[in-house]
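1st attempt posting a full record on here, be nice pls
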Amino acid sequence: MTTTTKSLGAALGTLFILGATSATGFAATAHMPMGGNTSQPIGHAYFCQQLPQECAVRTRSAKPMRLTKKRWRELTEINAYANAAVSPVTDQDFYGVEEHWTYPKSYGDCEDYVLLKRYMLMQKGWPAHTLLITVVKQANGEGHAVLTVRTDRGDFALDNLRGKVSLWSKTPYQYLKRQSRFHSGRWTTIKDRRAQVAGY
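the predicted structure (as tokens):
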């Protein structure tokens, strides 16, 4: 067994232990507390104009994905692959505009990483309503985007700035809003009321 496999197994085992022995405390931070409808980011609105089918997915019963060892491995492998395959560049430097969300080929910014990871996981059978583009604020005040993955063990963040897949509450961001799990073209606020947002 490789070191990576051991680490993945240990991480997943910890999640099951937490869920079984500390349900109340775990539940308080495992899933993001959501608010009401909010505005769609400009970059996503442009993306929807270019690919309207991407923003017309509706779901009535938006249940989270059951997180098995196989599914956990898909998350970690796809996160690592996309982070390595795409070189970071700002939209201003690459396209000459402030916001341009698109599927990256070799270069892209944070939203492009998110779109690629979302697409790759959907190809593995993950439903669209479990893979949500999410807007956050970094500790330095700058905006950023991560992919929120909704599972029965919590909401996980796939991030091009961090190598590991982590529970959203274990990342150094303030969470602002994300795609609605019921409609891929709409957005919902996140009630991130954690007293302190710190790095892990």
